Amino acid sequence: MRKTSVRKKSRAVVEDIRREYRLDYKKARSNRFASQMGAGTVVVVLDPDVAAVFKSSESVNALLRSVISALPPRSKP
Q1: pLDDT of 18-59, one tens digit each?
Q2: Does residue 62 sit within a domain?
Q3: Is there a domain that residue 21 lies in?
């Protein structure tokens, strides 16, 4: 059987973002970090300048807990 030639893509530069991307889900893999997350875990991404101040997630949690304890108690609606 003879192979057909594939048309070459034009070299025009597309400056806009495409409205649709065709993704090949056959190559997709499951999230390798999913098993590390416990139930009820929330992931927050820190800006690089803020992340540079903290050495671990425990130090971030400790600071946030101290800020929460300093807040006035919330009244129930």
Answers
A1: 778 888 888 888 888 788 777 788 888 899 999 999 999 899
A2: yes
A3: no
Q: Answer for the pair 43, 37: CB distance below 8 angstroms, yes or no.
A: yes
- All residues at 6 or more sequence positions from 63 whose CB lies less than 8 Å from its CB, including other chains: 54
In Å, how far are 22, 58, 66 from 69, measured between CA atoms?
49, 16, 5
Residue 13: how many other CB atoms lie within 10 Å: 5
Please check whether residue 33 lies inside any domain of the structure. no
Give the separation between CA 65 and CA 62, rounded to whole angstroms.
Answer: 5
Range of the domain at 56: 42-71
**Residue 50 within a domain:** yes
